[in-house]
Amino acid sequence: MRALRRDVLARILVLACLGLAVVVGWGTLARRPAPPLVVRPPIAVAVSGEVVRPGTYEVEFGARVEELLRLAGGLLPTAARSLVQLAAPLTDGQTVVVPALAAPGGTERVSLNSADPARLETLPGIGPAMARRIVEHRPYARIDDLLRVPGIGPKKLERLRALVTL
């Protein structure tokens, strides 16, 4: 009988110790400090080209191109809106260039998504085979998508960028 009583008391003591450990541990977890708040300073971004007020602007970290263009007074009627990625995030020190509808020299830009192969061949360095590959890789969401076309690398893309549109 005494052995049974000792066994019951031992079990009660173990359970009480476990309960106390849980309460103390929970209290310690509940008192942990909150993670530090990260404060991100504003960033400086420049905009040039076909905007009302080109210049350098200060925007909040995480801002998008659309917000920068709003600060710059918006796009001019001569801006090639389809070539501007409005939702692109901005980074400190970045320059956003808004191109004109017309290519340098006043000629109309060639549409990558709708021009026929003969029109594409008017571009420098684009022959019949390359024009056919450009058509085969349609549609294009960005000018940089031209890099998907075999035979167009970064150098050729930069030569074409000012001459094409979507």
Description:
By secondary structure, the protein is an alpha/beta fold. Helix content is 34%, strand content 12%. The protein contains 5 helices and 5 strands. The strands form 2 sheets. It has a 3-stranded mixed sheet, with helices on one face. Strands 4-5 form a two-stranded parallel sheet. Strand 1 and strand 2 form a beta hairpin. The termini are far apart. The mean pLDDT is 84.
How far from one another are the termini? 93 Å
- Given as residue ranges, the uncertain stretches (5+ residues, pLDDT < 50) are none
What is the subunit arrangement here?
single chain
How confident overall, as mean pLDDT? 84
Strand order of the largest sheet: 2-1-3
Radius of gyration: 32 Å
Topology (elements, then pairings):
Elements: H1 2-30, E1 43-49, E2 55-59, H2 65-71, E3 95-98, E4 110-111, H3 117-120, H4 128-136, H5 154-161, E5 164-165
